[in-house]
Amino acid sequence: MPNELPTLLQATFPQLEPTLLQEIAREGMVKQLEPGQEVLRTGQYLPSNILVLNGLVKVYRQDEEGNEFLLYYLEGGNACALSLMCTARNEQSQVMAKAVTASELLLIPAQVSEQWLARYRSWHNFVIASYRERFDELLQTFDSIVFKGLDERLVFYLKRHLKAVGPQVRLSHQQIAEELNSSREVISRLLKKLEQKGAVLLHRNSIEILDLEDL
Questions:
Q1: Tens of pLDDT along 72-116?
Q2: How many C-beta atoms lie closer than 10 Å to residue 188's C-beta?
Q3: pLDDT at residue 203 above 70?
Q4: What's the CA gap between 30 and 89, in Å, rounded?
Q5: 173 within 8 A of 162, measured Cβ to Cβ
Q6: What is the rounded CA–CA span in Å between residue 79 and residue 74?
Q7: In contact, 127 and 135? CB cutoff 8 Å
Q8: Widest CA span of the chain, in angstroms?
Q9: 2 or 92: which carries more pLDDT confidence?
Q10: 139-179: per-residue pLDDT in tens?
Q11: Angle between helix 18-27 and 5-12 (nearest 10)
Q12: How many CA atoms lie within 13 Å of 135's alpha carbon, on the beta-carbon side?
């Protein structure tokens, strides 16, 4: 990976200037994640900022019973905006994050990335854009909870999964119910209705998304 890293960085973060990419390759540490492996826990102090080179990482909140609530996904080319904020202010994380698929992250020491804000305009713009993108996603999540019924929230959830992961949803009805703060019975009933409309196809251990465009 060290020899391949500069090329990978250039392909993944084309908006960053070449001299900055060279510094990122020199200062960053690559971290490999297996599916399900945690990278961030609630209450953790972060010595490094997190960039996603490839794969898919889920950022979520977890209650005392272990139930998870999805906030957003991170994929190749994204930065964890909450890690940027926590490292800048030396604050504890209020969220958790784990790999959905096998993933590669690049950990950037906080003091180094702080220096880049003043030295590189492209890094400053990238950080601001990361804040804005995650904020917009959180607004969409908030809107789906406050202004939409559970059937619409389920469609929103499946559309976001389709965009981030693809048409195969390898989650149980119980897992989806926990993320939407509902019950398995209700989610199963709504998924059955979506299947009857031709929007999804229900398999024994997965859901195949067919067509959600008109929903």
A1: 899 999 999 988 888 888 889 989 999 999 999 999 999 999 999
A2: 15
A3: yes
A4: 23
A5: no
A6: 7
A7: no
A8: 56
A9: 92
A10: 988 888 888 899 999 999 999 889 888 999 988 999 899 88
A11: 130
A12: 7
Task: Supply the pTM of this predicted model.
Answer: 0.81
For the stretch 104-150, pLDDT in tens is: 999 999 999 999 999 999 999 999 999 999 999 889 888 888 888 99
Tokens of 182: 């509902």
Quick check: 2 pLDDT over 80? no
Measured in Å, how far apart are the chain's first and last C-alpha atoms? 43
Q: ∠ CA(194), CA(137), CA(159), 5° rounding?
A: 20
The encoded tokens of residue 24 equal: 């990122």
Contact 209, 158 (CB under 8 A): yes
pLDDT given for residue 1 in this prediction = 53
Q: Position 121: which residue type? A: R
Task: Give the chain as a DSSP string.
Answer: -TTTHHHHHHHH-TTS-HHHHHHHHHH-EEEEE-TT-EEE-TT-B-SEEEEEEESEEEEEEE-TT--EEEEEEEETT-B-HHHHHHHHHT-B-SSEEEESSSEEEEEEEHHHHHHHHHH-HHHHHHHHHHHHHHHHHHHHHHHHHHHS-HHHHHHHHHHHHHHHT-SEE---HHHHHHHTTS-HHHHHHHHHHHHHTTSEEE-SS-EEE---TT-
Chain Cα centroid distance, residue 189: 28
Look up residue 62 and give its amino acid.
Q
